[in-house]
Amino acid sequence: MKHAVYVVGIGDSGKQSLGEEALQIVAGAEVLIGGERHLACFPESSAEKCPIQNNLKTITEKITGEKRRVVVLASGDPLFYGIAAYLLKQIGATRLQIIPNTSSMQLAFAAVKTAWHDALLVSCHAKPLRPHIQKIRGAQKVGIFTDQENTPAYIASQLLEAGISDFRAFVCENLGGKEEHIIEADLAALPGQSFAALNVLILIKQERPLEVLNEGSPWRASFGIPDQKFHQRQPLKGLITKCEVRVISLSKMQIRPGDIVWDIGAGSGSVSIEAALLGAKVWAIEKNSGDVDIIQKNIMQFGAKNITTIHGLAPEALLDLPDPDAVFIGGSAGKMQEIIQLCRTRLKDAGRLIINVATIENLAEMNAQLQGQAETTLVQISRSRPILNLTRFEALNPVFIISWEKK
């Protein structure tokens, strides 16, 4: 008969972190599996010791066929980015018994005295950082499991390269152990530094005054930036909210300094840039990676550092963002109904929803969804163009600006 397989969480202080039940389970092990650091905590054990390295498949096969008492040692909470989740898939829940310990992530947030129920939690332990960069950009708090490759220094350098610099960093070393040490610094101070091998990286976004964020921007006092001043997608330079339409849309958003603004389908980021220069904290959501790069170029060009760019598709990309005071929708990728429904729910009281559409079919759909409670403005703009030694007017495509206020 096969015995239960115990997965026991162990803290950085080793054997001292275990309660009486866990100690008895380890003492009764006939096969003890774990990292070399964890196995070294039990030199007195007579169990067969199997170190976990890059051999999870072999370890799993051994556990599956083993008839002796097997105990697997894991870091902290084995179900939180730990081996227990893997074993549940491979072996099933019937044989597994899980004895959790305190996660090093819990210890890290406790050490920096910050609540973590609303934090973005990321594991870069044997996993790449890149898929998480855009999520980190939009987060207020981040907890990151590191490893020997993805060190705090490397992670910081990658974030800085992506234009993410507005975080205070806490490197929490040897948590729960005698050599516990917390290093606090700006993110920019981490590249090139060395840290203890056992660490968790905590990032807390710094709220800086808007006048500092946009200091040095030549456009701070202007409104209605000319289209040609923006970086745009080539060769389709027309994919931008035109200056006149942008100005009217922004006026209907009634942005005040400190407002939270969502720009959904941000494109080149022209609306985001102008909203940010008015003092708003802007989240620019864009599904096309090429356009995200263009938004970043425009952020750098205009000094609008109070913009967080999210590479994702609404409405899913909106779920973790702070509730907005104003929302601008310039594109929906076919999910307009779901996006409007979420925006109407999440908008603060007296919040404004502004939608730009170009067809009467979309206008009718929006009017029906907003139950006739929205105001619609038809904007038809013509710009002068030289023709030989004369001047004519060239019309831009008409745009319907739909405005809805939450009451």
TrEMBL record:
It is an enzyme of class 2 (transferase). Keywords: Cobalamin biosynthesis, Methyltransferase, S-adenosyl-L-methionine, Transferase. The keyword Cell inner membrane does not apply. The keyword Repeat does not apply. Pathway: Cofactor biosynthesis; adenosylcobalamin biosynthesis. Its EC number is 2.1.1.196, 2.1.1.289. InterPro entries: 4pyrrol_Mease, 4pyrrol_Methylase_sf, 4pyrrole_Mease_sub1, 4pyrrole_Mease_sub2, CbiE, Cbl_synth_CobL, Cbl_synth_MTase_CbiT, Cobalamin_biosynth_MTase. Pfam families: Cons_hypoth95, TP_methylase. Residues 5-190 form the Tetrapyrrole methylase domain. GO terms for biological process: cobalamin biosynthetic process; methylation. PANTHER family: COBALT-PRECORRIN-6B C(15)-METHYLTRANSFERASE (DECARBOXYLATING) (PTHR43182), COBALT-PRECORRIN-7 C(5)-METHYLTRANSFERASE (PTHR43182:SF1). This is Cobalt-precorrin-7 (C5)-methyltransferase / Cobalt-precorrin-6B C15-methyltransferase [decarboxylating]. It comes from hydrothermal vent metagenome. The lineage of its organism: unclassified sequences, metagenomes, ecological metagenomes.
